[in-house]
Amino acid sequence: MLSREILRKIRRIEITTRSMVRETFAGRYESVFRGRGMEFDEVREYQPGDDIRTIDWNVTARTGMLHVKKFIEERELSVLIAFDASGSFDFGTRYRFKRELAAEVGAVLAFSASRNNDRVGLLVFTDEVETFVPPRKGSKHVLRIIREILEFKPQRKGTNISRALEYAMRLLRRHSVIFTISDFRDNNYESALTIANRKHDVVAITITDPHEVEIEPLGLIEVEDSETGGRVILDFRDKRFTRDFRRINLEKIEERHQIFKRAKVDHIDLRTDSDYVEPLIRFFQERRRRMRWHY
């Protein structure tokens, strides 16, 4: 049975995100992720009147005859929310935990997809895939996903993004959108990200707490790595240390951005001390402009 606290959180998130989707995100989601509303069917020889943008140049070069790609109407889309439940997501300072922000963002995306009559699924991962909810339609299913995110108690604390994406690749047979919500505190996931994005549409949503980048001069503090359990005493009175702390973490953020760029993955950066609505809107607007230019 769900605790009263979890039920209150689910209800609050439902009320907040439903109205937000209805008033702010409804049209933007469809225009961004439905695209031309078509999916690839087959290749056939060019006929007068065919759109030259559909020419398949590889087949044309191989056969010596103009060929075009034929598309059929894509009636529905599968959306998978890949949710990081590792130990580092149970971190938050004066505002809220990263997990709470991630749950609310996941709810916005799930309700947006559901409103568009798309199927929505959930994959919760640490350094293993800990649960998978197959994509389905309906508002009740969306509420189940929110409940799973909020009440899920992971068995492990590490992070393995590659394993999560490889698992998703095995299960998602058709082209899907994969929202990967994580702090990306992991290594060696670029290859898996690149491969997954070739078949699917991967969007990386990073969740960061401001004190993971900058820290106040609080004195000597014993800190524990939430994923490994290792402990160390750090002196945050030392200006040189705090300066190096900031520099190293900014370098990690830049390295992460470069990984996304090389993998050609769209990304959205969110912080626990900031509103997430504006970054999401900017993402939708930028992606819509890019799609119009592309087509």
Layout of secondary structure:
Layout: H1 4-33, E1 38-45, H2 57-63, E2 67-73, E3 78-84, H3 98-115, E4 119-125, E5 129-136, H4 139-151, H5 161-171, E6 176-182, H6 190-199, E7 201-208, E8 220-224, E9 231-235, H7 239-263, E10 266-271, H8 277-294
Parallel strand pairs: 3-4, 3-6, 6-7, 7-10
Antiparallel strand pairs: 1-2, 4-5, 8-9
Helix pairs in contact: 1-3, 1-4, 1-8, 3-4, 5-6, 6-7
Tell me, what's the shape? Answer: globular
Can you write the helix and strand succession as a string? Answer: HEHEEHEEHHEHEEEHEH
State the strand order across the main sheet: 5-4-3-6-7-10
Oligomer status: single chain
CATH fold-level label of the largest domain: Rossmann fold
Number of strands: 10
Specify the CATH architecture of the largest domain: 3-Layer(aba) Sandwich
Would you write up a description of this structure?
By secondary structure, the protein is of the alpha/beta class. It folds into two domains: 201 residues, von Willebrand factor, type A domain (Rossmann fold, 3-Layer(aba) Sandwich), CATH 3.40.50.410; 35 residues, no CATH class. The chain is built from eight helices and ten strands. The strands form three sheets. The protein has a six-stranded mixed beta sheet, with helices on both faces. It has a two-stranded antiparallel sheet with strand order 1-2. Strand 3, helix 3 and strand 4 form a beta-alpha-beta unit. Helix 3 packs antiparallel against helix 4 and helix 6 packs parallel to helix 7. The protein starts with a helix and ends with a helix. The mean pLDDT is 81.
